[in-house]
Specification:
Distance between the termini: 100 Å
Mean pLDDT: 81
Number of strands: 3
Order of helices and strands: EEEHH
Length: about 180
């Protein structure tokens, strides 16, 4: 159905085949428009509540995600701690084997003397710790000095390179001045 200039609908006349202007049915147009508007409002309301539901669901998923993430990070830390403990246990196992070997060399075979020998070995190792710390401190100081020396050497090389370049530039300028 085509519309005319003043809102009237143009419809084909059955008998003549020409187009005839018919006044629009305002009530029907009003009802159709009102129905479309009500449907749009209902759809907007549905979308609004769908958005609210989606936001609620997103909040739930976000909190579950954060909870799972915290649990995962805690599990990772726990696994790292277990690995460290296992490594320490292996190191202790090797140390126990070494101490048993020392005890065997010392001729201490009785089970009655084993704990005492172990205590003595622990005491000896504790006495050796301060000396090892002093050695470590000296090594760190020597390392710092070496790094400083490397930096100083690099600085001197840069200065030497710059001096050689400047000398070459000065010599070139002097040669140019002599030619003139």
């Amino acid at each position: 159905m085509a519309e005319g200039e003043r809102g009237a609908a143009l419809v084909p006349a059955v008998a003549t085949g020409a187009w005839v202007s018919v006044p629009p049915d305002w009530r029907r147009l009003y009802e159709e428009t009102r129905e479309r508007a009500e449907a749009a409002e209902a759809r907007a309301e549905e979308l609004k509540w769908a958005e609210v539901d989606a936001r609620c669901a997103a909040g739930v998923w976000r909190s579950q995600f954060e909870s799972a993430r915290r649990k995962r990070l805690a599990a990772i830390e726990e696994a790292k701690e277990a690995r460290r403990t296992a490594k320490d246990a292996l190191a202790l196992k090797a140390e126990v084997a070494r101490l048993r070997g020392l005890l065997a060399e010392a001729g201490v075979e009785s089970r009655r003397y084993r704990p005492m020998a172990l205590r003595r070995e622990v005491a000896r190792l504790r006495k050796a710790v301060p000396g090892a710390e002093v050695q470590a401190r000296k090594i760190r100081e020597l390392h710092r000095a070496l790094l400083k020396e490397r930096d100083d050497t690099a600085s001197l090389r840069r200065l030497l390179r710059e001096t050689v370049w400047r000398y070459a530039d000065t010599r070139r300028l002097r040669d140019c001045r002599r030619r003139q």
